[in-house]
Write a structure and sequence with these properties.
heterodimer; A: 576 residues; alpha+beta; Beta Polymerase, domain 2; Cytochrome-c3 Hydrogenase, chain B; 2 domains; 4-stranded antiparallel β-sheet; 19 helices; 14 strands; B: 307 residues; mainly alpha; 10 helices; 70% helix
């Protein structure tokens, strides 16, 4: 098998990179994944050698996700797992390093792989592992008023613990590390610039986010992002009081648009960890639903993009086409959104012949409506000129910052989980992956345009090729403390779920990483030097999902940037 | 001027102003309906804009503490300028206030509405307001210049600064001047652009600036601002209709009906155009307006040489 040999190559490179053969254990947790545990002292050097080693074989190491876990109840240490994607060799490489309590410290690998920056900061917030050498340390996920030394994802932190009311911060109004309340800050190159706050509630995407945009007239000279305002505590909840079969329903609620892809990635991670063979028919059904979700998401995005360009007719037309997709979803799942279909080991509902025929008919309608309208809209000189050459992300920056999905593909990176790490039924078909080199907003629009048509084609092909068979493998007691990585190509890019199984069919650790987590850090880079008028469409061009990105924290804390910070509501306050 | 004549002029001016104030929100309602039909929606009732304004007017003035006095006064000043302008320009009655130099006063008042709006927004201190005000100011500077040049070209041919002597701008036969055709075309474009229609609707730009110039206003102040903007849009169209078509033939009643119908038709045409447009980049919009200004400048020079 080609896939096995690719993982062999990865293992070879890993062994070469291990410093003098010391401090490293190599294993294969499941198909398509290689795990290596190195001593934290060698970690940085090891990663450096890995990048070089894969570089010699023409493969790029892309930072996928980073997960810190409190293993104290198991073996007395903390562990950081960096998940690196070697897309060309179809393998996820999990690099683990341990650190002993009480002050776990693991050298930062962000200087080698800048895309690790957020994952390490989040690990520092949530599990309390320190990363010496991180170029920009500081709180990422936890609010500024959160007490020092309290880390919610540690195992000795009860999920229902309530903290007292936190002190309002000095000055009380601005997020730490961000500007003074004065709208006129010294700015760049000594020239005074005005500060335009975009958020804490996005005027058009209707989600909480906060971009600080520094402008000189209408020209943007700098931008900063602060997110993680909506804290839902999903990881803690899943790890504390849910069983593996309940979590799919929690996972799909990470996002209101691409929920199914989260449920899928989660199930794949558990199935991989426990080596569960999912019936082929179930894999086809998952693929069909994933593509329908992509159609829904992309059409929604086209509508929002036109809305942001002031082109309301386009907005309405796209959402009318999307309506047909929602009817398809309803026919297949009973919900207008593709919810409630996944369980570990398979799916809950079948697609019968009659429904399949109805879906094909509705898809024709979708394809016709989309081609007719969007094809025309993309010929309107006005709309095209508005986005051509705007918000360029160079290939180098896309690689450096770890961009994923259509966003990366519009900057010339041919990465797509469906092809690079085949899952569900994507191994049985050929997926066309559109790639463009321009890296501007127009390229992102055109990539998504092609992807919509490809999704329609894929659903038809899956419906034709769907084999008969069972819907779900039998799932007995899972072996504990097994690691699994599940990845899907969500509409917005690679969605990775990392799980460690627990005793009694529970989860010891679960960390979902949504695609926007990787794409949002590219936005400030794209904004620089642009006109303010282009900022909304540039931000929207990555199809950001702030709620996906913000799923991760324990206590529901609401604070605006202009109000005094009342971080933690004690007593009977709202708990996420 | 005798007493009764003065009274008639005052009556006509008052009728014009009342007409503009009443019809402008109605036309906006018609446009919303047209756009909705293009988008295959039912759309709000034609009276919706009026309902919105009434709701806002009822809320009174509030919440403007901490802003400069000019910010607070701007909506009322803008409305004052718009109403005065509507008294000067013949619309429903065919007579304006009519005095020597009323042409200059009209241009001045029309420009004032947007200048006051821009300054009011800029003095709010809100970053969105400041950017919106900046856009409003640049847009109005570009379009008012084109408008002034176009009107000057026509006035040059007539040798008079009396507004009524300009109507209609194009006369066939001995009085025909090619420059006035260009000038009327320029006025048509300015009426569209300065009426803040897509792609020129950049000062408010809900999705970019969260209402821009209007962001810090609420209640009656917001209603005044919106109402004044709508009245100004109607006046721009009325000016175009006066220049483009002869109205002298009609009896007062026929004129009133025909004029209203023409305004409505123009609104429908404009909103159909808007339906296929997105919002332009400010730089792109300015580039378009510069071309219009250039054309009216050429028309003015040609008119000076008797063409």
């Amino acid at each position: 098998m080609q896939r096995a040999s690719a993982s062999d190559v990865v293992e070879g490179v890993v062994r070469e990179a291990l410093p003098g053969g010391r401090g490293g254990v190599v294993g294969r947790p499941h198909e398509g994944a290689v795990l290596v545990r190195v001593s934290r002292r060698f970690l940085k050097e090891f990663v450096k050698r890995l990048i070089k080693g894969f570089g010699r074989r023409g493969a790029t190491v892309r930072y996928s996700t980073g997960v810190a876990t409190d293993y104290r109840p198991v073996d007395g240490s903390f562990r950081m797992a960096h998940v690196l994607a070697v897309d060309k060799l179809k393998t996820y490489l999990i690099v683990e390093a341990d650190a002993p309590p009480p002050h776990p410290r693991i050298p930062s690998i962000t200087p080698e792989l800048p895309a690790a920056g957020w994952a390490e900061r989040e690990a520092a917030d949530m599990v309390g592992v320190e990363f010496p050498g991180h170029p920009s340390p500081g709180r990422l996920v936890l609010p500024e008023g959160w007490p020092e030394g309290v880390h919610p994802l540690r195992k000795d932190f009860p999920y229902d613990r309530k903290l007292g009311v936190a002190e309002a911060l000095e000055g009380g109004t601005y997020v730490r590390g961000f500007s003074s309340p004065s709208p006129h800050s010294p700015g760049v190159e000594g020239r005074p610039t005005a500060l335009i706050p975009l958020g804490p509630y996005h005027p058009a995407l209707h989600e909480p986010e906060y971009f600080e945009i520094f402008v000189d007239g209408e020209r943007i000279v700098g931008a900063r992002y602060r997110g993680f305002f909506v804290h839902r505590g999903m990881e803690k909840l899943a790890e504390s009081r849910m069983t593996i079969d309940q979590v799919p329903f929690l996972a799909e609620r990470i996002c209101g648009i691409c929920g199914y892809t989260h449920a899928c990635a989660y199930c794949q991670a558990v199935e991989a960890a426990a080596r569960i063979e999912v019936p082929e028919r179930a894999l086809y059904i998952r693929s069909i639903l994933l593509e329908i979700e992509r159609l829904h998401s992309h059409l929604l995005w086209f509508g929002v993009a036109f809305h942001l360009l002031g082109f309301e007719t386009g907005f309405m037309a796209m959402w009318r086409v999307r309506e047909a997709v929602m009817r398809v979803a309803e026919a297949l799942t009973g919900n207008r959104k593709t919810y409630g279909m996944n369980l570990v080991g398979g799916v809950r509902r079948d697609i019968d012949v009659r429904r399949a025929a109805a879906v094909v008919r509705m898809l024709d309608e979708v394809e016709r409506g989309f081609k007719e309208f969007c094809g025309h809209a993309l010929k309107l000189g006005e709309v095209v000129e508005r986005v051509r050459g705007v918000g360029v992300l160079s290939r180098e920056d896309a690689v450096k910052l770890g961009a994923v999905g259509p966003h990366a593909r519009a900057s010339g990176l041919a990465i797509d989980v469906r092809v690079d790490h085949p899952y569900a039924a994507y191994g049985f078909v050929d997926v066309e992956v559109p790639v463009r080199d321009e890296g501007d907003v127009l390229a992102r629009i055109l990539v998504r345009y092609e992807e919509v048509l490809e999704s329609v084609r894929l659903v038809r092909e899956f419906l034709r090729g769907m084999p008969a068979g069972g819907l779900r493998a039998e799932v007995r007691d899972l072996p504990p403390l097994r690691v699994g990585v599940g990845a899907t190509e969500a509409p917005r890019g690679e969605d990775v779920h990392y799980v460690v199984t627990g005793r009694g069919n529970t989860l010891y650790r679960w960390r979902p990483r949504a695609p926007s987590y990787m794409n949002i850090p590219t936005v400030p880079v794209m904004l620089e030097g642009e006109r303010l008028a282009n900022a909304p469409i540039i931000i929207a061009s990555i199809d950001p999902c702030f709620s996906c990105t913000d799923h991760a924290v324990v206590i529901d804390v609401r604070f605006g940037v202009r109000r005094p910070l009342k971080a933690l509501v004690g007593g009977g306050g709202p708990l996420g | 001027m005798s007493g009764s004549a003065a009274l008639a002029v005052a009556g006509a001016a008052a009728a014009n102003a009342a007409f503009a104030l009443t019809l402008a929100p109605l036309l906006d309602g018609v446009e919303r309906k047209v756009r909705a039909r293009v988008q295959r929606r039912v759309g709000p009732p034609v009276l919706q804009t009026w309902y919105d304004l009434i709701k806002l007017y009822r809320r009174g003035f509030f919440g403007l503490r901490g802003c400069g006095p000019f910010h607070r006064a701007a909506p009322a000043l803008a409305m004052g300028a718009a109403v005065t302008a509507s008294a000067i320009l013949p619309t429903v009655t065919g007579f304006g206030a009519g005095f020597a130099g009323d042409l200059i006063v009209l241009i001045y008042l029309m420009a004032s509405v947007s200048t006051i709006t821009a300054l009011g927004a800029a003095s709010s201190g809100s970053p969105y307001g400041v950017v919106g005000g900046w856009r409003e100011a640049s847009l109005s500077m570009a379009s008012e210049l084109a408008l002034a040049a176009a009107l000057a070209a026509i006035a040059c041919g007539r040798g008079s600064l009396l507004l009524s002597s300009l109507f209609p701008a194009v006369r066939l036969g001995a009085g025909f001047r090619p420059s006035s055709v260009v000038a009327v075309a320029a006025v048509a474009l300015v009426a569209y652009a300065d009426g803040l229609r897509l792609p020129f609707e950049i000062p408010e730009a809900e999705e970019e600036l969260a209402e821009g110039v209007a962001v810090e206003y609420g209640g009656a102040a917001l209603a005044l601002l919106k109402h004044a903007t709508l009245v100004r849009r109607l006046l721009l169209t009325s000016l175009l209709l006066n220049l483009a078509f002869p109205w002298g033939w009609a009896s007062p009643v026929v004129r009133a009906a025909a004029f209203t119908a023409s305004l409505t038709l123009e609104s429908v045409l404009c909103s159909l155009t808007e339906s296929v447009c997105g919002r332009g980049r400010p730089a792109y919009v300015m580039r378009l307006l510069k071309r219009v200004t250039l054309a009216s400048g050429v028309a003015l020079i040609a008119a000076c040489f008797g063409f």
